[in-house]
Structure formats: structure tokens, C-alpha cells
Amino acid sequence: MIKPKLSVLDLAPVKKDKTIHQTFQDSLDLARHVENLDFKRFWLAEHHNMASIASSATSVLIGFIANGTSTIRVGSGGVMLPNHSSLVIAEQFGTLESLFPGRIDLGVGRAPGTDGVTARALGRNPAIINEQFPRQIMELQQYFSAENFTAPVRAIPGEDCDIPIYVLGSSTDSAWLAAELGLPYAFAGHFAPQMMDMAFNIYRENYQPGEKFPNPYIIACVNGIAAETDAEAQKLANTLYMAFVNIIRDDRKPFSAPVDDMDAYWNPAEKMHVLNMLRYSFIGGPENVRTQIQNFQERFDVDEIMITSHIYDHEARKNSYSIIRNVMDGL
After folding, report:
1. Are 108 and 79 in contact (CB under 8 A)?
2. How many CB atoms lie within 10 A of CB 260?
3. Could you please report the per-residue DSSP string of 233-301?
4. pLDDT single digits (tens) 152-207
5. Which whole-number Å values give the CA distances from 281 to 84, 134, 326, in the listed order?
6. Which family does it belong to (predicted)?
7. What percent of the chain has pLDDT over 90?
8. Residue 152: predicted pLDDT
């Protein structure tokens, strides 16, 4: 069992009592905080048409976070590639890499990051997604290559930029693709844990080594809510639970402060569904979180654990990452 690196997935979560400007300032403050704690990377995820998530213009926000930090890697977790032209993404991330050399990651996924109506507004064609997504990854690799200087279409900036591409997924399809392309793989265990075990096995067993990534590399994204006591962490986690109940109810309102009694908020069917979706979550005081991380790593043995933390109070959220860092250092 290896000791995994620690990273952060941030969705720029919008709270009921804060503006989007304040949301972005909180994201920057969190990035600076985890940079000081020696987290490896800070990723932002593309979502659309959700009043609770402000990371829709992902490339712009990556630039804001990278400009306000100095050493932590910053990237997308991910850019939903079929929403965009491959050339535009190559140019955007080439620009970011040129501004912040050696610090930019490009995680890509095929999901829309939104509902069906908004996906159509983004210009997606669902009939060709499974064909389009792998082709777009290869287009990105071509645009980023030094050899592309003779091509009729070039990404400037972008050409000859060393920007690592990560394949994101929540199913086994993405595992097969990442293995075939010889690219690192990040799995969305924070909301879609059902196929994680199978996906990791497929990826490892079928990995085709490449020049840039000779060995498979796995990032597992999970929820993390740590506090001084188990009771305090469980109370903080109610914000996360309510957010997932709201998704079930198709209610995309901003995140709410934690309630005292979740059973008064969700019904038994919602509770069962939410707890199943969040089965890979580290929630508790330091000792409980330590045990949960150890059990997770003994089972999955991933290279990196990426923590996303939907905690309403900003200082409590920062403290949660500090506790998780201390726990990991003690493993």
C-alpha cells in the first residue's frame, strides 16, 4: 500500500449568505491554505445552470487561482470536453501554461456537467459523444505537440506546451479509454462510487504505457468533512446531505447552513439514495477519519486522494483540510 498524495477538488460552491464574488475569494483563500499544507493540486470542475456552483467558466477561474498562488498545481477536474472545441481548449490551457509554467493540469470528461436542456444550449450532440470524446483527446495531444508546427491548424499558445491530460470518469467506459491512451485516470467517487472498484481494476489491468506516463496513475475523488469531534463533523456534513437531496428534487439553490435534524429534511428513500451515493466519504473527528482513510487505501491503493468538501462555514472548511493533512501525515 502506497501513501497517497493529497489534492483538492473545488466547485466554487455558492452559499446562501454570499455573493459569487465572495465565493471566488473563498476559493482563492482555500487554495492558498492548502498550498501551505503542501497539497499537490487544486482542481475546479465545470458545471452549468446551477445556482449552487460557480465554476462554469473553468479556464478563467483556473487563471484566477493560479495567479493568487505560487507552487500548487491548478487545473480542471474537469473540462467537459464535448461542450467545447478542442482547439479552443488547447489555446486556453496553452495560455494558462504559458502564464504559469509547470503548474497547469487539464482533466477532461465527457459528461455535460448539467441538465439535458442546458447541454443542448451548449451545442452538444449526444449521438456522437462516445466517438467525439476520444477523438478530442487525441486532437488536444496533437495541438500540444511540438510536431504540430507544420499543421494547417495550430494552437498558439498551446503548441509545444507540457500540459498533462487526465481522463475523468464515473464509469468503466472512462477506465478503458484512459488505459488505452496511457493517461492518468481520475474517478468521481464523491458522487458515483458504484463502479469505482471495477473501473480501477480495468484501468490497471489494461494500461498501455506511454512515453509521458509509463505507469498507471489513479486519483480517487472523495468527500471529506473533518472536525475536532465526530459529532461536529456529522453536523457539518448535513450541508452535503441537503445538497444531494436537492439534486434528487431538481432544486439547484445555493448551499444551506447545516440543519440539526436531517431526518426532518429527507425522507427514507432520499436518505438511502444519498448515503449510497456518498459511501466513500471521510466524515468524523481525526481518529475516525484516519481509520476511514486507512480502510479506503487498503482497499483501493490509489496514487492520490482528491478531497472535495461541502462545508458551509469557510473557516470550518479550511480546518477540515488541515485535519485531513495532519491525519495523512500520521499514516
Report:
1. yes
2. 8
3. HHHHHHHHHHHHHHHHTT--PPB-PPPS-GGGTS-HHHHHHHHHHT-SEEEESHHHHHHHHHHHHHHH-
4. 999 999 999 999 999 999 999 999 999 999 999 999 999 999 999 999 999 999 99
5. 31, 30, 17
6. To bacterial alkanal monooxygenase alpha and beta chains.
7. 89
8. 97
pLDDT of 127 strictly over 80: no
Q: Which of 285, 240, 235 has the alpha carbon at shortest distance from 260?
A: 235
If one counts the domains in the chain, the total is 1
Q: How far apart are CA 145 and CA 153, in angstroms?
A: 12
pTM: 0.95
Rounded to the nearest 10 degrees, the angle between the axes of helix 230-248 and helix 314-329 is: 120
In the predicted model, what is the mean pLDDT of the chain?
95
Q: Any residues with CB less than 8 A from the CB of 314 and at least 6 apart, and which?
A: 26, 29, 30
Cα(144)–Cα(138) distance, rounded to whole angstroms? 10
DSSP state of 15: B
User: Could you read off the pLDDT of 254-268 as tens digits, one per residue?
Assistant: 999 999 999 999 999
**Residue 71, all three cell numbers:** 507552487
Domain CATH for 263: 3.20.20.30
Other C-beta atoms lying within 10 Å of the C-beta of residue 187: 30
The residue among 296, 280, 282 whose CA lies nearest residue 324 is 282
Residues 40 and 72 sit within 8 Å (Cβ to Cβ):
yes
CA angle, 46 as apex, 42 and 51 as ends, to 5°?
A: 110
Torsion sign, CA atoms 184, 93, 95, 158: positive
Q: For residue 306, list its beta bridge partners.
A: 7, 221
Q: Cα–Cα distance between 12 and 15 in angstroms, integer? A: 10
Q: Tell me how far apart the alpha carbons of residues 100 and 121 are, in angstroms, rounded to a whole number.
A: 32
Amino acid at 276: N
